[in-house]
Amino acid sequence: QVQLVDSGGGSVQAGGSLRLSCAASKYPYSGYSMGWFRHTPGREREGVAAIDSYGTPTYADSVQGRFTISKDTAKDILYLQMNSLKPEDSAMYYCAAVPRLWVGSPLRPKEYIYWGRGTQVTVSS
Questions:
Q1: What is the pLDDT of residues 100-116, one digit of tens each?
Q2: Which of 21-25, 33-37, 66-70, 106-110 has the lowest mean pLDDT?
Q3: Cys bridge to 53: 14, 30, 46, 101, which one at CB 3.0-4.6 A?
Q4: Can you count the helices (H) and strands (E) in the chain?
């Protein structure tokens, strides 16, 4: 069982930046595809960004150009750099992983089997 610990959330003003981190315990990230998802009450969980084992990223249209996903395989840490934050970005953010080299639909939650507990991001105007 892979355990993921996500962190780095907080409260910022619109236009500000945050960097989220996701650390894997026991198992390395090598050979895994990973992603970031967010959820707010009354809405379905949506994919934000994903990266496969080859380092190829995928972004939701709503965050394209503002967010950057990356990973440090040696240290088993996944990152999400969020710039130019908007109030609509406020949500609980979760990191996820699956033991596949790549994923056909990388922003679909059902593709992933391991999940972090979540970290809250609040953007005020």
A1: 999 999 999 999 999 99
A2: 21-25
A3: 101
A4: 0, 11
Close Cβ partners of 7 (under 8 Å, ≥ 6 residues apart): 20, 21, 22, 23, 119
Give the separation between CA 24 and CA 5, rounded to whole angstroms.
Answer: 7
Give the angle subtended at the CA of 77 by the CAs of 50 and 26, to the nearest 5°: 110
Alpha-carbon gap, residue 124 to 11, rounded angstroms: 7
Q: Are 114 and 97 in contact (CB under 8 A)?
A: yes
Task: Give the bridge partners for 13, in sequence order.
Answer: 124
What CA–CA distance (Å, rounded) separates 98 from 61? 23
